[in-house]
Amino acid sequence: MEILELFGVDWKLLIAQLVNFIVVVLVLWFFALKPLTKTMQKRNDEISKGLADAKSAQERLNQVERDAKDKLNKTKNEAMVILEEAKKQAEKSKQENVVKTKEEVAKLITKAKEQINSEKDAMISQAKTELAGTISLALEKILSSQLSKELDKKYIDKVLKDLK
Amino acid sequence: MSLEINNNQDILGNISNSLQEEVEVTGEHQIDASQLEYGETAYEEEGEHEHTLFAETLFNIGGFPVTNSLLTSWVAVFLIIILSLVIRVKTSRVPSRFQSFIETIIAGAYTMMDMVTNDRKKSEKIFPIIFSIFIFILINNWLGLFPGIGSITYNHTVLFRGGTADLNTTLALGLFGVIAANIFGIVMVGGWQWFNKFVNLKTILEIPRKIGKEPTVVLINPINFFVGLVEIISEVAKVASLSFRLFGNVFAGEVLLASISAMLAYGVPLPFMFLEIIVGIIQALIFAILTLVYFTIASTEHEH
Questions:
Q1: Is the ipTM of this complex over 0.95?
Q2: To the nearest whole angstrom, how far is the Cα of B29 from the nearest Cα of chain A?
Q3: Per the record, GO CC terms (chain B) (predicted)?
Q4: A8, A15, A23: residue with CB nearest B77
């Protein structure tokens, strides 16, 4: 191997360089490349997971928003119905009250009228009797001697008849 | 400076002698001849250092030669360890700007690898090796380009020389790449499949079974068998092409920069510097992608 000697090839040096290189491989691999590639892989996984999570979260958010809207609409409709019903009921009860009051008022009026009438009748009859007594007393006093009993009675009846 | 040129010639002549001995021998005996040939330039470029094909030994530790390229590689390894630790500490789920930058590079590398392998799982398995090859070569390429790095000397030799400007480094990487690719192939497609890619016993065993239906298998299958044998050579060629391509490009770049700087040190080398920075990336990329292609080929089931 003449040519190798010309280039100064020495097995000791060659092995030394081989050892150098193997040291480089081991050091680079275990201290730099392995942890670095691991970190890179981990980060890539995390990023893709994060993106997927964000997507699903967005979807869930949309779903929740839709649900909330639906519920709100439903509640609104229900409230409207309830309100409408309440209004109707109020109207109804109002009218009923009015009718009832009117009836009561009418009853009261008739009752009052009846009482007034009966009181009036009683007053009249009382007045009549009182008046008759008074008149007869007066007439008796005035005409006690002048008129006969018979005539007197006749006269009184006539007066009473006229009064009636 | 002229010593090394003589060294080369000498090594060609005296293969058996070791490097150290030769420095002494040339230093003592052949200095006259060298000065005859290269003497003039040698004195003119007093500060410049000659570029040799091989990395120069700085010192020995118990018989182990520490070359300037090895030293630079150690610096590169040190830098990569620091970088890795910084990444380790800074890694968090929420990325900083620094982490984003690193992550962009890694994600880009994955995308690029997927284009070759067409299979994310396979890419993930090979990724650490391919990425390390890229980073290691890139840092080594660029360290050699560092401005002024060639002017730091130690015992009259350059202290730092690009790690990949030494065939030892590129050959080690090429061998590692091709061997690892074959091991990966064995793991992915199974030992028998892998073995048949090179020594195609399957096609030979097929002949008696198929000969009744298609008589042509007698001709075709032996050819397939020899194609398999050629694959063995091609594996060696892969190592050679990978290592020499990288070494050649980086070394040529350094020589080019040195030559341009020697001509005119101000301004002119700048575009070449940018060129070499780009070459540094491109060569690292080519080495990494070719290794990846070898991995992919080795791990693909052979259809016949």
A1: no
A2: 21
A3: plasma membrane; proton-transporting ATP synthase complex
A4: A23
Q: How many other β-carbons are positioned within 10 Å of the β-carbon of residue A151?
A: 11
Is residue B8 less than 8 Å (CB to CB) from chain A?
yes
SS3 state at B67: strand
Q: Do A18 and B131 touch (CB under 8 A)?
A: no
**Is B106 close to A8, i.e. CB distance below 8 A?**
no
Distance CA B254, CA B150 (A): 9
Which amino acid type is present at position B239? V
Hey, is B61 helix, strand or coil? strand
A80 is a domain residue: yes
Residue B8: predicted pLDDT = 46
**Domains held by chain A: number:** 1
Query: Is residue A98 included in any domain, yes or no?
Result: yes
Q: Is the pLDDT of residue B148 over 80?
A: no
Rg (CA), chain B: 24
What is the maximum alpha-carbon separation in chain A? 203
Q: What angle do CA B119, B123, B126 make, to 5 degrees?
A: 140
Q: Is the pTM of this model over 0.95?
A: no
Q: Which residues of A touch B166 (CB under 8 A)?
A: 8, 13, 17
Q: Is residue A161 assigned to a domain?
A: no
| Rounded CA separation B102/B84 (Å) | 11
Q: Which domain does A69 fall in, by range?
A: 9-122
d(CA B44, CA A164): 181
A31 to B12: CB separation less than 8 angstroms, yes or no: no
Domain ranges of chain B: 1-46, 66-299
